[in-house]
Amino acid sequence: MLPGNLAIVSPVSLSLLPFIRTTFGDAWRPPKRQHPPQRHIDETMGWLCRAHDATADDGVSYGYSVRGGWRDSYIETTGYIVCTFYNYAEATENSDYRERATRMAHWLTTVQNADGSFSNPHYAGGKGIVFDTGQDLFGLVRGHVETSDSKLLAAARRAGDWLVDVADAEGRWTRNTHLNVPHVYNSRVAWALLELWALTKNPEYERVARANLDWAVSQQNSHGWFDNCAFSPDVAPFTHTIAYAIRGLWEASQIIADEAWRNAAITGADAMVSRMGRDGFIPGQIAVDGRPAARYCCLTGNAQIAIVWAKLFEATGEQRYRHAAVQACQYVMSAQDIASNDDDIRGAIKGSHPIWGKYSRFTYPNWAAKFFLDALLLTRRWM
Fold first, then answer.
1. Which of 246, 208, 240 is nearest to 226 (CA)?
2. Taken in order 247, 323, 370, 292, is the CA torsion positive or negative?
């Protein structure tokens, strides 16, 4: 989930044909016909399977870059992609997706650090990272729930224990984070820790999760926007990290009925509704005062907030959330190429639209496809 200018990859040669095709296509921006949601779902999962097959191990490739091709497995996002594959296996009754998910979950145990953390070998000197560890915790917990494999639960406990150990005296994550400062989007890590708490009832998991969720609530202003929600201080956050923060609060409130977390999530979701255009476009970055800070769309953020709105509709029955979720998904659908003969691109989701936008520039990251698929599985019945 690192922004494009922070993701470190090996130097690669320019892949001219996909680069030219995609860049000029976005510059011309002809209207694209949306296909039935199921077609988009099928093509997106097809691409995710190719991303899984593109690596030499059982992780999922970071994604496809039009400036260099497929990248190596990305530890962090493989963690939560496990959940998507299990969900899709259940929805389709296809055991292949379940088998893939289990392989991914077991692969995570082979790249887990001795202290229980997970890291990015290209980033932060290989140290354990709070956010990455939380995202892989999702995969370990879900893998155990699905298979009853004690090895996966043991790995999940080690990850949870590490998240407790690196918390400060107040229980907050202020180190082993990007730039060693706290981030509101780590509410998503707190959600993962509560998932583990629900299995183990370890009070330390609850204590640390609560501390970070309560702090996240304290960072929200009266208009619904959060301080400390960007990768770096004094930078307008991507909708990607804003949606992370909101969803973490919402999902945590579904595990422990905390009204403050629930209300903060709803207030943040409402703020995002107010920034969406009629065509489903949301500016890729939004300042803490609510001002749009970008002219491109972070497609990942669109998909992520659509998930939140869909869940809010199911919880409240308020039609505006259903409408917003559908509109946000349809915008991403209009930017997805599902007719290309290029298997590397067909069904993928760009980091940004147009593709040269600041978020994950010139890349089709795996998590964009993951969240889009999650969103469509929730909203397809309303389209």
1. 246
2. negative
Q: Which 3 state secondary structure label does DSSP give 295?
A: coil
pLDDT digits (tens, 9 = 90+) for 165-213: 999 999 999 999 988 899 999 999 999 999 999 999 999 999 999 999 9
125-145 core/surface letters (b: 16 or more CB in 10 A; e: else): eeebbbbbbbbbbbbbbbbbb
Q: List, in sequence order, the alpha helices (H) in 256-298.
A: 259-273
**20-63: pLDDT as tens digits:** 566 656 665 554 667 899 999 999 999 999 999 999 999 999 99
Q: Identify the three-state secondary structure at position 65.
A: strand
In angstroms, rounded to a whole number, what is the distance separating the alpha carbons of residues 204 and 360?
35
Q: Is the dihedral of CA 348, 323, 86, 193 positive or negative?
A: positive
The reply to whether the predicted model has a pTM over 0.90 is: yes
Residues of the chain falling short of pLDDT 50: 3-14, 31
Tokens 């999922």 belong to 60
Q: Rounded to whole angstroms, how far apart are CA atoms 357 and 143?
A: 35
Residue 26 CA neighbour count, 13 Å, CB half: 20
Question: Using CA atoms, how far apart are residues 313 and 306, in angstroms rounded to an integer?
Answer: 10
- Report DSSP letters for 144-159, one per residue: HHHH--HHHHHHHHHH
In our burial notation (b when 16+ CB lie closer than 10 A, e otherwise), range 308-343 reads bbbbbbeeeeeeebbebbbbbbbbbbbbbbbebeee
Q: Which domains occur in the chain, in start order?
A: 21-382 (1.50.10.10)
Question: Are 174 and 197 a contacting pair, CB within 8 Å?
Answer: no
